[in-house]
Amino acid sequence: MADDKTQSAKTMDVRYVANLARLNLTDGEVEQFQSQLDNIVGHFNQLRALDVDGVEPMAHATLIQNVFREDQVRPGLNRDEVLKNAPEHSTDLIMVPTIVE
Amino acid sequence: MLNTLTIHEILGKLERHECRSEEVVRSVLDAIRREDPRLHGYLTVDEADALARAREADAARDKGGKGKLLGIPLAVKDVLNVKGQPCTCGSKILKGYVAPYDATAIARLRAEGAVFLGRTNMDEFAMGSSTENSAYGITRNPWKSDCVPGGSSGGSAAVVAADEAIAALGSDTGGSVRQPASFCGCVGLKPTYGWISRYGLTAYASSLDQIGPLTKDVRDAALLLQIMAGLDPSDSSTVPVPVPDYSAALKPDLKGMVLGLPREYFVGGLHPDVERRVEEAIAVCRKLGAETVEVSLPHTRDAIATYYIIAPAEASANLSRFDGVRYGFRAAGAEDPIDLYKKTRAEGFGPEVKRRIILGTYVLSSGYYDAFYLRAQKVRTLIRRDFESAFQKCNAILSPVAPTPAYRIGEKSADPMQMYLGDIFTVPVNLAGICGMSVPCGFSSDNLPIGLQVVGPALGEEAILRVGFAYEQATDWRRHRPRGES
């Protein structure tokens, strides 16, 4: 790899990143993911060898730019059908654990 | 055996009153009962509904109904919403979810009379290349039961190859239609980004995802593309260009066509049988009148790293919607909303999805964004430019779809990086936003199918369909069928 120092100095803080992603991990998962993810991120370092000065980042591959339309009311999904997919609901509300005491 | 026919062959029979849609559906359902206990290509099949819809189609035809797919049964990857059917994306987190609406692609096929008979297995949220990452069990390759069907649209490819479907839909973010088509010996088309609406396709990586057909021949791929393609107000990335008549592009020769052979694709690491079959296919294209020219795609070796930064980054954002609140699975015993999210996601997602969410969150996080995500976006520009200069010299590019034929179940599942490297020829096409198709081009020494990839520029579907069709007509690979060994 082009930059061994950067590569070896940084291993991912897997538990910290998982918390950012709102994901609980078991100790076994942390251990397994640590080596797998460090290996994958190690491969990413090959991109450091490329000269990308002055290259525009490509955020998407669309052939068009902005798309505008009239702000018209359209029918939404049927409420009863939507509630059928909710894990917990009352007559017309989706239930969640208490947010504010 | 009606289930072994193509869409266009069945339409001919229906029009000539040589068969009824109900017989077609029954023949497919029989094949599913016979083959699917072994292959497990389907997650669910709604027999009663499929038969009822087939009878409706027969009645409509009797009254002069003219839908372009009237009474044709299709299988659908479990990532596309079909109103009233489950849509689990191969994940436990969407267990029990029933789609309350049709994806645009589905609505367009339905308007032409298609019958949606079942949901096909896939890698969870389309993350994988072998269909081993499904929460609902593996799918087996119809040609060899101890091999994977490819992925992530492995269920769709397997059921088409095993004649458990007339044709199927998949989605392709980094090769997920083309690679399983190659592994199972069917045709798999990934259209240009923005050509088929993504409305109702559960998002994996939004800047790369495209819906695509898996079919028994190129004519069927053209037929399904014809119906699904084009502008949709519900997906603002769709292109406002009229859809050409793709059947007119299906010509028997390649006179006047220039085909590019990327120098970087035919070096080291290729399975010798793949190399041989693709070289033979190139020779057939020359005989059909095509001229070939060497082209260079110098950033090919950087495409895997670029893809596995960009796709997980987008996935980490897209999959934040699965939090146990509005739909699907919810973990028990949560004390507050944050606890609910963390527990639900921990219990609801499988390991590959967790890995990619963590990876994506990492490359977008403070301190790493510039080094990884922003740099990958710039390399993506370089990859697109490679193709733009190549297409100055040719109408389409020929390459392998994957470096190897189908591998054994479990062979690569322990090492994610090994699995990722198999995507080397397919991910550049998604990154550039252009179109590609896998067409069967023969078999390995142990009788596993191999696919030829035909890649075209943005909205170059006519060119790749023409190449695929002429090649297919000059060979008879499409007539080979798995023998049903076990």
Number of strands of chain B: 11
Number of helices of chain A: 4
Query: What is the CA-atom radius of gyration of chain B, in angstroms?
Result: 21 Å
Which regions of chain B contain 5 or more consecutive residues with pLDDT less than 50? none
- The SSE string of chain B, one letter per element, is HHEHEHEHEHEEHEHEHHHHEHHEEH
Structural class of chain B: alpha/beta
Oligomer: heterodimer
Mean pLDDT of chain B: 96
The proportion of strand residues of chain A reads under 5%
Structural class of the secondary structure composition of chain A?
Answer: mainly alpha
Distance between the termini of chain B: 21 Å
The helical percent of chain A reads 25-40%
Major sheet summary line of chain A = none
Low-confidence stretches of chain A: 1-9
Can you tell me the CATH topology of the domain at 2-255 and 464-479 in chain B?
Amidase signature (AS) enzymes
Radius of gyration computed on alpha carbons of chain A: 23 Å
Would you summarize the structure shown here?
The complex is a heterodimer of chains A (101) and B (486). Chain A has 101 residues and is mainly alpha-helical.
Describe the model.
- The complex is a heterodimer of chains A (101) and B (486).
- Helix content of chain A is 37%, strand content 0%.
- The radius of gyration of chain A is 23 Å and the shape is flat.
- Chain A starts with a helix and ends in a 17-residue tail after the last helix.
- Chain A is an all-alpha fold and 101 residues long.
- The longest helix of chain A is centred in the middle third of the chain and has 18 residues.
- Chain B is an alpha/beta fold and 486 residues long.
- Chain B has a domain of 270 residues: Amidase signature (AS) enzymes, CATH 3.90.1300.10.
- In chain B, 38% of the residues lie in helices and 13% in strands.
- The model of chain B has no long low-confidence stretch (mean pLDDT 96).
- Chains A and B meet through helix 2, helix 3 and helix 4 of A and helix 9, helix 10, helix 11, helix 12 and helix 13 of B.
